[in-house]
Amino acid sequence: MTTRKTAPAEEPKPAPKPMNIYQKLHLAKQSMGKVIKNATNPHLKRNYADINSIIDTVEPILLDCGLLLIQPVKDDKVYTIIIDIESEDTLESFMPLPLITDAQKLGGAITYFRRYTLVSLLSLQAVDDDGYEASRPSKNKPTLDGDRWAKALAAVKAGKFTAEQIKEMYNLTQEQEGQLK
To answer: What pTM does this model have?
Structure first.
C-alpha cells in the first residue's frame, strides 16, 4: 500500500479592502501635475489656467481612480463635487453666486466659480510657461500612458500645449519624447 502526503488546502486570501474616497483622492493627487496657465486676462494682463485646461488635467486621473467630477449649479451656488462611484461618498466645495441679472455676466461668474472651487478642492497649483519651473530641481512628475498620452499628443498638435510644456509636466519615455519631435 502506498500513501501519499497531500499538501494542506490553502486558505483563500481575503479580498482586499476597498479604498475609501480619501485614499482614492490621495492616489489621484500623486498622478496630478501642475496645471499650465494657458490663458491671459486681457484687462489685468495676467495668465491663468482656464477651466478646460484644469479639467483636461484632472478628470482622466480622477476617473482612473473611480472618482467622478461634477459641477452643478443649485440653490444659487456653484458646486464642485467629487463622487466615489463605488461607495457614493462625496467631497464638495461651493461658492454662492452673486445677484447678477445679465445672463452673459452670470455665465462668466459660473465659469469663474467652477474653476476656483475645483482648484480649491484639489489644492491644484498652476505654473506660468516662463521657464521658471524648468530651472528648479525636478520633482516626481506623473507619467502619461494610453489614452492620456494620446490626448497629450493631440493637444500639442492642436497648439494647446508645446512639446516643451509636456516635457516639463510629465516624465516621458524615450519613445514618447521621439514622438513629440
So the answer is: 0.62
